[in-house]
Design brief:
Blueprint: E1 16-17, E2 24-25, H1 28-40, H2 48-59, H3 63-76, E3 79-82, E4 85-94, E5 99-101, H4 107-110, E6 122-133, E7 136-147, E8 150-155, H5 160-177, H6 186-195, H7 203-216, H8 220-233
Antiparallel strand pairs: 1-2, 3-4, 4-6, 5-6, 6-7, 7-8
Helix pairs in contact: 1-3, 5-6
């Protein structure tokens, strides 16, 4: 018996036909699913050239429809596609209260009698942001250092996503010249990903993932919460 859906694409009900009657039309939500399947469906190497024509035939759509699905995905999806992985930002948590930190005062300002210099109090805060890779929850803990209007983060080294960050941050030389027992390799990272049901990543994908994580760990909602915490502390 012939399998008419060898890639297990999700059956979707079209909303009609386009103006030229050359392709089906779908709801925005279904267009997002079509876009995601274009990248997230696991396809054998020898079938890669066959997959996209099959997807277009299965949904009876054309290249223009695929282009529109990409635009709709960017507009309404709550995730991003990094090569063959779907990555989503989850909620944040403040794990502990503010801790005051002592920092060295700037002697140049301190000794200037005409200066209106005032030493800003520095704080640290333990935080956690949850991410999802292909719907698998990936915790990411970090220490947030706040001094005046500036801040920096220091990532922990425990969870897999944290290890991936340090794999990229430590750089190639650390992995080659450092102690192999203290660092993760691409092979060990992929072994852990596969154990979680996540497809392997190449170096480009991992770098893109870390860039996305760094851009997403602190959002507007978290900034608003942090400002309230700082206001209460002062």
């Amino acid at each position: 018996m012939t399998n008419n859906n060898p890639y297990n694409l999700i059956p979707l009900k079209p909303t009609g036909r386009n103006e030229t009657d050359t392709a089906n039309t779908y709801s925005p939500e279904d267009m997002v699913q079509i876009y995601e399947q274009q990248f997230l469906t696991e396809v054998p190497e020898d079938k890669l050239t066959e997959f996209l024509p099959f997807l277009k035939s299965f949904y009876d759509i054309d290249d223009y429809t695929l282009d529109v699905s990409a635009v709709i995905f960017e507009a309404i999806a709550d995730s991003c596609i990094i090569y063959n992985h779907k990555v989503k930002v989850g909620r944040y948590q403040i794990l502990e209260g503010l801790v005051k930190e002592e920092i060295e005062e700037d002697e140049n300002y301190k000794e200037d009698e005409n200066s209106e210099y005032k030493q800003e109090q520095a704080y640290t805060l333990e935080c956690k942001r949850t991410f999802f890779i292909n719907d698998v929850e990936m915790p990411y803990r970090f220490n947030l250092f706040i001094h005046g209007d500036s801040y920096s983060t220091l990532t922990k080294r425990n969870s897999l996503l944290e290890k991936i960050y340090w794999f990229v941050s430590d750089g190639f030389e650390e992995h080659v010249l450092g102690n192999p027992e203290d660092t993760e390799s691409l092979a060990s990272i992929n072994e852990q990903l596969v154990s979680l049901g996540i497809r392997e990543m190449d170096l480009t994908t991992i770098h893109e993932l870390v860039d996305y994580v760094e851009d997403s760990i602190i959002d507007d909602d978290m900034v608003e919460t942090l400002n309230k915490i700082l206001d209460d502390a002062e």
